[in-house]
Specification:
Length: 562
């Protein structure tokens, strides 16, 4: 039986799972692994300038491609620096594996240099965190990790491998095929009796609404979701943060819910008598966890692959545990049997179209906004002109990027990426880089404010070295907008730590070797974005904008939108 070095065994196990990119920074404990990628074309190591950037890029790659990826980092702070990005992967259900090269076993529990309990540090933000105790178990535990990362509710995993188990060690055997240790095609369907109860409820609904969540994107169930909506004239609404779950140009689409969504959408949700919550947790971002959006009388059919999410935030009329695509197909089949011609609903359809038209009219008025610097809302009509249909857009946290939720259109799944309820400022640029590596055939743009951009702007160097063609748009309002608004409204304008003094971001990009653009007028934006998208390599567009303090969250009766 063939023998191979332990580091090579790690790489071959990753290749068996189709891993193409690994991310991280080299270290003495992981050289036995990363050097096995030298000269190979089937797997690459993307060396970043900070481990946090590596984790964010891995998240973007996994979400854009739908495939697993890996961070490889060294002992102590090298791995601990991943934690913010891995927490994002946990919130965003991304299959990112952490392989941490740890100190030798004889240094563990003796307060050795760079010795920390990494496993327990990562347990709260991973589906699995485990330490390898024998070299011979490395392949087995990698298999376990992939099983946990890719089954059911996807998420990150972590393996801690002490240095002495990697150095000078070898093991027998060839890498196993994933088919031998996990279900590679699993799409668990829903309980047939629950399907029938859901169909009976949907067939009688007068104002049905389909709320499409992240599970629709994960399982590629957009086609089935649209077909369900069309059968019953259901209002079509993506859950907060999942604008790409359904095509935004569809005649039944209204807009996005949530604090940064539209009041028209909130009104539709509140009016609905039956909600099909497909692949969504009905989380805080969508519903505020109270009755201001979802009416207490509304009957809810909730579908989620994680049974613990069923009825967790709202009582349900029917709960169905299963894959969104599989369950949607079951519902379609049952509805077609019960209602061969569908169930047209002209009255509700007219209400949907009226709400959608009201939203579009509201957004159209923003073309008249004037000012120097620009109002940030004025940027988005110009972006809509320039962004290609399949363009991947990553939004950082913050007020200015958050205006995108109600103002950009998405037609293709896996083209919208954000902080997934994590809320970590600075993720936008690196996640955008990862999306471009995950789908190099698609254009990629990130949108961030000035505060968030400087969190991780050192990764412009990574983008230049790896020739990653991401267009980064920096909306520079020279402040931390949300916090300044709070200090203005609730703390008598006692401003502390909210006003920023920045470099010129276009010139900063040029120092790193990227292209830089500086735009001050609305009529320059679309052409500049088009030019930047054609650049072979990274570019940064700075757009100075004025401070903007959003109104209160949209409510069912109000115009909403910020």
């Amino acid at each position: 039986m063939a023998r191979m070095k332990a580091g090579l065994a790690v790489i071959e196990a990753l290749r068996a799972e189709g891993v193409e990119y690994t991310f991280g920074i080299v270290g003495t404990t992981t050289n036995t692994i990363v050097t096995e990628m030298c000269g190979r074309s089937d797997i690459h190591f993307v060396d970043t300038r900070h481990e946090e950037g590596a984790a964010f890029m891995a998240y973007g790659y996994a979400r854009a491609s739908g495939k697993p990826t890996v961070c490889i980092t060294t002992s102590g702070p090298g791995t601990i620096n991943l934690i913010t990005g891995i927490a994002l992967a946990y919130k965003g259900r991304a299959p990112v594996m952490v392989i941490a090269g740890d100190v030798p076993r004889e240094h563990i529990d003796r307060d050795g240099a760079q010795a920390f309990d990494l496993v327990n540090i990562f347990k709260p933000v991973t589906n699995l965190a485990r330490q390898v105790t024998k070299t011979e178990r490395i392949p087995e535990l990698i298999h376990d990790a992939f099983r946990m990362a890719l089954s059911g509710k996807r998420g990150p995993v972590m393996l801690d491998i002490p240095r002495d188990l990697l150095e000078g060690q070898s093991l027998d055997g060839e890498p196993s095929s994933p088919q031998t240790y996990r279900d590679v095609n699993g799409r668990p369907p829903g309980d047939p009796q629950a399907i029938q109860r859901a169909v009976a409820l949907l067939a009688q609904a007068q104002r049905p609404l389909l709320l499409a969540g992240g599970g629709v994107v994960d399982s590629e169930a957009g086609t089935e979701a649209v077909a369900l909506a069309e059968m019953l004239d259901m209002a079509l609404v993506p859950a907060y943060g999942h604008n790409d779950a359904v095509p935004n140009s569809h005649r039944l689409f209204i807009g996005t819910p949530g604090r940064r969504g539209s009041g028209e959408t909130a009104e539709a949700i509140h009016r609905a008598d039956v909600i099909l919550a497909l692949g969504t947790r009905l989380n805080q971002g969508t519903t505020f966890w109270d009755n201001s959006v979802i009416n207490p009388q509304t009957r809810i059919v909730q579908v989620n692959i994680d049974s613990q999410e069923i009825g967790r935030n709202y009582p349900v009329a029917v709960g169905i545990t299963g894959d969104a695509k599989a369950v949607a197909q079951q519902l379609l089949d049952a509805l077609r049997h019960a209602l061969p011609q569908g169930r047209p609903n002209a009255a509700w359809r007219a209400e949907i179209e009226k709400l959608a038209a009201r939203r579009q009219a509201r957004l159209q008025t923003e073309l008249a906004l004037t000012g120097d610097p620009l109002m940030p809302q004025r940027v988005f009509p110009e972006l809509r002109k320039a962004l290609p249909r399949d363009c991947m857009v990553t939004l950082d946290a913050g007020v200015a990027p958050g205006l995108s939720y109600d103002r950009l259109n998405f037609e293709v799944p896996r083209t919208f990426f954000n902080y997934s309820g994590h809320g970590g400022l600075g993720m936008g640029y690196c996640v955008g880089l990862g999306t471009k590596l995950g789908r190099p055939d698609r254009p990629a743009v990130s949108i961030q404010g000035d505060g968030g951009f400087l969190y991780t702007s050192q990764e412009i160097n990574t983008a230049v070295r790896k020739r990653i063609s991401l267009v980064s748009i920096v909306l520079n309002n020279r402040c931390h907008g949300a916090e300044k608004y709070q200090q203005q409204r609730f703390f008598d304008k006692r401003y502390v730590g909210v006003d920023l003094d920045n470099p010129r971001f276009d010139r900063l990009a040029e120092v790193y070797g990227a292209r830089g653009f500086y735009v001050t007028r609305p009529d320059e934006i679309a052409d500049t974005v088009t030019t930047a998208l054609a650049v072979d390599g990274p570019s940064v567009i700075e757009i100075p904008v004025t401070e903007y303090f959003p109104p209160a969250a949209p409510t069912p009766g109000g115009a909403g939108g910020h």
